């Protein structure tokens, strides 16, 4: 597959871009109730201004790339709330519009990444961190394609195929984006040197190695220490720029329903990530604007 050089690919060749941090933790800091199966996607319908405000906080912090609130937004999920396909399509497009509006507040060049979360995010039962849904690649492709087509029509700069726990789902996503006209990045959710479904990370990265539509490959929603090891593999196996946005490093206690431990997301890690090939660097769960500001300052001072 041969694709023309995209503006984002040109930007990545010039140097690293700072991604935003966790959208959900910023929304919670703004007082939003996310105790819902739709999670942050609920606000696309109920309070879109909060989403734009959260994006704006990361613009203020120095992010150059904003990831939309469409991670858990699906036709199936909104159908359970009584919304039809046209209404849901409008909300998916709104997710891109909100990020684009917030990005317009910056005086620097900005990019919008439309989030395409895994099938398990729609189930809202934690299976997005396990994979192995019992569905075929073809079935997963049929699930993802309508949402991808709708988001692509909204004009994002890139589609973020993110928090992918399983090689089968990665195969499905890479098939579903063909012909959509938008470049993509692919990031796995991992544990150590394996996908969450237990597959060797080297094999998972190799799926995207020859795909010119994929402008970056890497990991997200993982421990910072796991990102340290993954960046080198991703660069070596694919030859592509690496995208990394790990969690804070705190652990979630299911029994107490609270976070435990301290953050290990340190801007000083960026030097190693950048040297190993990382070009899109940010944060995921529990990484807020303060950490992104420190990360941006660290990159600017290098």
UniProtKB/TrEMBL annotation:
InterPro entries recorded: BHMT-like (IPR017226), HCY_dom (IPR003726), HCY_dom_sf (IPR036589), Hcy_S-methyltransferase (IPR051486)
Domain Hcy-binding: 5-299
Keywords annotated in UniProt: Metal-binding, Methyltransferase, Transferase, Zinc
SUPFAM superfamilies according to UniProt: Homocysteine S-methyltransferase (SSF82282)
Cofactor note: Binds 1 zinc ion per subunit.
Keyword Lyase on entry: no
Gene Ontology MF terms in the entry: S-adenosylmethionine-homocysteine S-methyltransferase activity; zinc ion binding
EC number: 2.1.1.10
UniProt record, GO biological process: methionine biosynthetic process; methylation; S-methylmethionine cycle
PANTHER family the UniProt entry points to: HOMOCYSTEINE S-METHYLTRANSFERASE-LIKE ISOFORM 1 (PTHR46015:SF1), ZGC:172121 (PTHR46015)
Protein name as annotated: Homocysteine S-methyltransferase
Annotated organism of origin: Streptomyces olivoverticillatus
């Amino acid at each position: 597959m041969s694709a023309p050089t995209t503006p984002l690919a040109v930007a990545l060749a010039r140097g690293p871009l700072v991604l935003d941090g966790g959208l959900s933790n910023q929304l919670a800091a703004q007082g939003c109730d996310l105790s819902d199966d739709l999670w942050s996607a609920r606000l696309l319908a109920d309070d879109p201004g909060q989403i734009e405000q959260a994006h704006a906080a990361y613009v203020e912090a120095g992010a150059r790339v904003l990831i939309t609130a469409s991670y858990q937004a699906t036709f199936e999920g909104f159908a359970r709330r009584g919304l039809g396909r046209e209404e849901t399509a409008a909300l998916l497009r709104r997710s891109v519009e909100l990020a684009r509006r917030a990005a317009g507040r910056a005086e620097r060049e900005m990019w919008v990444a439309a989030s395409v979360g895994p099938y398990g995010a729609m189930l809202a039962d934690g299976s997005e961190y396990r994979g192995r849904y019992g569905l075929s690649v073809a079935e997963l492709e049929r699930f993802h394609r309508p949402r991808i087509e709708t988001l692509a029509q909204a004009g994002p700069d890139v589609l973020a195929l993110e928090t992918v726990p399983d090689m089968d789902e990665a195969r499905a996503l890479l098939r579903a984006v063909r012909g959509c006209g938008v470049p993509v990045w692919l990031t796995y959710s991992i544990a150590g040197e394996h996908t969450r479904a237990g597959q060797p990370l080297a094999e998972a990265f190799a799926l995207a190695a020859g795909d010119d539509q994929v402008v970056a490959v890497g990991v997200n929603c993982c421990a910072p220490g796991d990102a340290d090891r993954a960046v080198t593999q991703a660069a070596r196996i694919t030859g592509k720029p690496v995208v990394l946005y790990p969690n804070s490093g705190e652990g979630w206690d299911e029994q107490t329903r609270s976070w435990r431990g301290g953050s290990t997301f340190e801007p000083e890690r960026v030097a190693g990530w950048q040297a190993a090939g990382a070009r899109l660097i940010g944060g995921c769960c529990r990484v807020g604007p303060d950490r992104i500001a420190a990360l941006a300052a660290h990159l600017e001072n290098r």
